[in-house]
Amino acid sequence: MNLTFLGFLARAGILISAIITLGLNAKFLTITGWNNELLGYIIAIAVFSLVACLVPPYPNFLYDLFWALAASISALFALVIQFVDSGCYGVRPDNGVNCAVYKAGTAFTFLVALGWIASTFLVRLDIQGAADEKDAQKADRKDGGKPVKKKKKIKFRIIYAAPAFANYLIDNIAIPEVEVTLLNPTNDSIQFSVLSNIRVPDAMSVTFNSMRAQFFRPETRDDPIPFATIHLPKLKFPANEKITLVNQSLTLGDVDQFAALVEDVAYNSVFSVAAQANAKIGVGTLTTKVDLVEVVSFSGFNNFTDIQINKIGIMPPDEQDNNIYAEVVIFNPAPITVTLVRPPLALSSSNHVTDLTTSQGEVTLSILLANLPVGQATIPIANVTPGNNTFTINANLNTPVIQENIQEIIESQIPYLRDGNTTLTATGLSVVYNGQHLEYWEKALQAIRISITRPVREIVAMVMDSSGGEGLDSVVVGNLVDRILEMAGGLGEDENEDGYTEGLGRLVLRLLTLLGVL
Q1: Three-state secondary structure along 344-399?
Q2: Which residues contact 17 (CB under 8 A, 6 or more apart)?
Q3: What is the DSSP string of 145-181?
Q4: Among 35, 72, 249, 321, which has the minimal tally of Cβ within 10 Å of its Cβ?
Q5: Is the pTM of this model over 0.85?
Q6: Which of 387, 132, 343 is nearest to 247 (CA)?
Q7: Which residue ranges form the domains of the chain, and what is each CATH number?
């Protein structure tokens, strides 16, 4: 079988593979967003290959080498698209085209590249064979048939712009969904784990050399002020293994920036975090350096508009004089789990349990009415997970403070009472974990205020239900609530409020005392 005939076979393979590649990638183009440039390149090479492969094979090494290089880059792009745009490796959810179709598109793109490489190799052999034959003829004429030393083969090295291409991918691909867990906080650091569904592609491995990354608010991007820094060890992930970070340490930085970030999370529907790192990444045998600056956005708490109150009741005072309990549901929209629980200690070497207690964190809030601290509420924090989280709150109100400032409190409540509602505000006071005050976290939580507004009748009904109907006259309580709301609703803006607020204040104090709140 001569080289020319093999060259025709290579051309035929290129023709068939290019036609299939063109059809599959044209389909991908209709459902993709960010990677149109890569798909456009693949489609363009497939179209040009259809024309170029019709040229009969002849000894023109540069012609075939050009198309071999162009098609090889196209194959690399196809592999990248298969990784970042399909559901094959967990980077993106299913987009309507299954993994097998993506893999087929990649396979035929590689076949185009292999066809051109084979054609280049055959042309090289043809040229080399002709040169060897010519050298042999010269040797026979000049040296009487003495062997001639073979010329050294020229090695071609292809230099890819790997760092620039890696930065392009990072800047353009969508950030995949991840699950972040924060645990064991201190005033200096916090442990974290990052879990994702991203798997290393088949027959490859990914290596991250040790690196340092810093996190900051995007507002300080021109001159970053890190609120946290991490130092990661060298990590290697074999084929098909999920890329995760487990039990790494996050070193806390500028407390004011962290407090500002907490405000962003609390008050906005979307908040952003910027990251900067110089990473050396190895994919298979290719290693490249990447200068990473990425901004990631998550859903925020949007001023805690989704807080639900399931229960409010009165209980006998505990050791902290708490006589009010409540069960609230807070929706966490971010994919972040915060754990303030330390697992029980393991068995000692003598197989005796050294400690079966589980230390947990507590957040203490200051309750505000008319911007005055009128009580405290304590929330035991175990796990704050994505989605709905139910918390039990124990609280107490400072009776003397409320009595002394009742007129000012009523004045602040009148706009809500007119609509049959009441409101209160809470702000962070202290954070304790494992018996230690976390001043870093306290300053952050003191920067936010959470307001809750609910119908007066709903709140009173919950308190009445908690007593089981014992010790409270529902008729008396109902009449008192009606008088308070009627008086507040009848208050005109042009009327003298002093008399009304004084009368309302007496009625409200009587209601709170009757319910057992004060």
Answers
A1: CCCECCCCCECCCCCCEEEEEEEEEECCEEEEEEEEEECEECCEEEEEEEEEEECH
A2: 108, 109, 111, 112, 115
A3: T---PPPPPPPP-----HHHHHHHHHHHSPPPPEEEE
A4: 321
A5: no
A6: 343
A7: 3-143 (no CATH), 164-300 (2.60.40.10), 303-341+359-515 (no CATH)
